[in-house]
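Need tokens for this chain, all 356 residues.
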Amino acid sequence: MATIVMAGGGTGGHVLPLLAVARELTARGHQCVFIGTRTGFEAKLVPVAGFPLEFIEIGGLNSVGLARGARSLMQLPFSVLKARHMLGKYHPGAIFSMGGYAAGPVVLAGLWKRLPILVMEPNAIPGLTNRHVGRFVTRALLNFPEASKFFPPGKSVITGLPVRPEFFAIRPKPRESVLTVLITGGSQGSRRLNEAARASWNYFREARFPVRFIHQTGVTGHAALAKKFAETGLEGELVPFIDDMPAAFARADLVIARAGAGALAELAAAGKPAILVPLPSATDDHQLRNAEAFTKAGAAQLVLDSQMDGGRLFEEVGRLSSDQPLLKRMGDQARKFAHPEAARQAADLVEASIVH
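Here are the structure tokens for all 356 residues:
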């Protein structure tokens, strides 16, 4: 059996798929070692999952400002050397990378040592690391076909993004008299979605619209927002964080969310129709590209961040609520993006690339 180095981190969207693939590889008898940073989500999630984690020091380079970018460039050579030392320590048979700034030094060290490099690219437009190493990779595992043009012909495979099995177990929800709308801007919440939701409450109340909200607000501003919501008399719950997101998805008729790859993979697995509001500051505008792919397929409605306010939220929810066949078609189209075997396929490709 081989040792596989898992590279990447920073956000939960990078770490959770890595963990899913690592669990699959471990079940097959391999050892998985993570390399990341102390400041990313990997520092919290990887040890809890029971995997060894080594640290390097590196920051972002893309859309981070001049000072931070310069600091990251200064750190890069030392991080590559440290990562190379770690590869010498563990003698991996392959490197599996989710991209992101934490993966860059590890991938560069792996290329230096001529190890097989497999990258999983969750977005329609690859991030900086995957774009720069694309022509050198052994395999590119993609979530969106649009990303294939950034990698050499024959190297790309559409595997999708690993998602918790609980999302795939969600069954189609019969329509009730009250429409349940789930609003989530991610674990930290979204100021734009929070403000738009708050501004929409009077519209729903005055129209006597039969709606129930499940809203993950993030910690910041939750108390004030929840107090205002309680005063409206509308049905629903506002919470800082939803511990059981699959259960929230199961209760929802419609989801309003950002367009990160992880959120879209969960929408696909659950087969839920959505209104997508891409984060405008996302690197290389990748959330907009992700949302466009879903919208083009008829799986979601796209509303730009600058256009999302209380009136627009009310208008979009009302329009979709009045067309139940459309909601069903959107959910069916979303499910076509689902890849329930993503972790297994990734593990298959890793095993096929291992050098002994």
